[in-house]
Specification:
Blueprint: E1 2-8, H1 16-31, E2 34-40, H2 43-52, E3 59-60, E4 63-64, H3 71-92, E5 97-101, E6 108-112, E7 121-125, H4 129-136, E8 140-144, E9 146-148, E10 154-156, H5 159-170, E11 173-178, E12 193-194, H6 196-204, H7 210-226, E13 230-234, H8 238-245, E14 252-254
Parallel strand pairs: 1-2, 1-11, 2-8, 5-8, 11-13, 12-14
Antiparallel strand pairs: 3-4, 6-7, 9-10, 13-14
Helix pairs in contact: 1-8, 2-3, 5-7
Bound molecules: adenosine-5'-diphosphate (ADP) and N-acetyl-L-glutamyl 5-phosphate.
N-acetyl-L-glutamyl 5-phosphate binds at residues 9-10, 41-43, 46, 63-64, 74, 78, 120, 145, 156, 158-159, 211.
Subcellular location: Cytoplasm
Binding site for substrate: 42-43, 64, 156
InterPro entries: AceGlu_kinase-like_sf, AcgluKinase_fam, ArgB, Asp/Glu/Uridylate_kinase, Glu/AcGlu_kinase
């Protein structure tokens, strides 16, 4: 059976229509014979809850600086609020979701990425026992980007990097759905196909930056591992979701 990891993030978690449309698409893909795993971020929920708790927050090169005192709020926002909202939406369309974080079932190994970012983790694929079992049972794993390292420390992982590790764990296809229709060039036009050299060129020009730089780096790493292109598209666009459902090319194809 074909397996696909779909990653969602950005403002999706604040958009009821977007969530409903996404799960209708997932339902259609599952009926079409795909085994699916959803990996999610929820930067918007993290920001709201940090602010509500009196914290300020900054990003460095697309990654959120996460001081130790903020990790309980970040974990609550991603593994709690965002994860359960997506689980609820899956139930509503009759899918059978299982809400997880990267810490569950020994799926990945996590470590601190860079101490200057605080409790930010990087993860590598470890054991697929848990997702294998859930997928064979026809269930939909919904995985937040919260991890735990060997010392028991909770870590905040960028959700595109989390999706890459889960894609590598299963040798699955990967689609990254964001707020934008794909990677855009200096004129705001969609780049249909992007390889390592093209990426480096656009970064040098300052066209690809911030969260999109992290996203394309994650996509390039995944594409090389699975030797297949990874797509970056938008959950906002009904046309792109329909194309995804019909197996047609969507967004930017990041090449191995
Ligand atoms: N060349 C580019 N093409 C598209 N978006 C870009 C580009 N460079 C920077 N970005 C920014 O990256 C954002 C997507 O990254 P990010 O916010 O991390 O997405 P998500 O939260 O969905 O993972 C876009 O909304 C845009 O502001
Ligand atoms: C380390 C780091 O940057 N973690 C991210 C995790 C969530 C995420 O990636 O959310 P999106 O997919 O919505 O951007 C954060 O705290 O925002």
């Amino acid at each position: 059976m074909k397996t696909m990891v779909i990653k969602v993030g950005g403002a999706l978690l604040a958009c009821e229509t977007g969530i409903a449309r996404l799960f209708e698409t997932l339902q259609g893909l599952q009926q079409g014979g795909w085994q699916l795993l959803l990996v999610h971020g929820g930067g918007i929920v993290v920001e709201q809850q940090l602010q509500a708790n009196g914290f300020t927050s900054d990003k460095k090169q697309g990654l959120r600086i996460t001081p130790a005192e903020q990790i309980p709020v970040v974990a609550g926002a991603l593994a709690g609020t965002a994860n359960t909202a997506l689980v609820a939406a899956a139930c509503k369309v009759g899918l059978v979701p299982v809400g997880l974080s990267l810490a569950d079932g020994g799926m990945v190994q996590a470590q601190v990425l860079d101490p200057s970012l605080g409790c930010v983790g990087e993860v590598v694929a470890k054991a697929s026992t848990l997702p294998d079992a859930l997928l064979s049972a026809g269930m939909l794993p919904i995985i937040s980007s919260i991890a735990v390292d060997e010392t028991g420390q909770l870590l905040n992982v960028n959700a595109d990097q989390a999706a890459t590790a889960i894609c590598q764990l299963l040798g699955a296809e990967l689609t990254l759905l964001s707020d934008v229709s794909g990677v855009l060039d200096g004129k705001g036009q969609l780049i249909a196909s992007l390889d390592q050299a093209g990426f480096e060129q656009q970064v040098a020009l300052g066209v690809i930056a911030g969260g999109m730089k992290v996203k394309v780096e994650a996509a390039l790493a995944a594409a090389k591992s699975i030797n297949n292109c990874v797509r970056i598209a938008s959950w906002r666009s009904p046309e792109q979701l329909a194309a995804l459902l019909d197996g047609e090319p969507v967004g930017t194809a990041v090449q191995p």
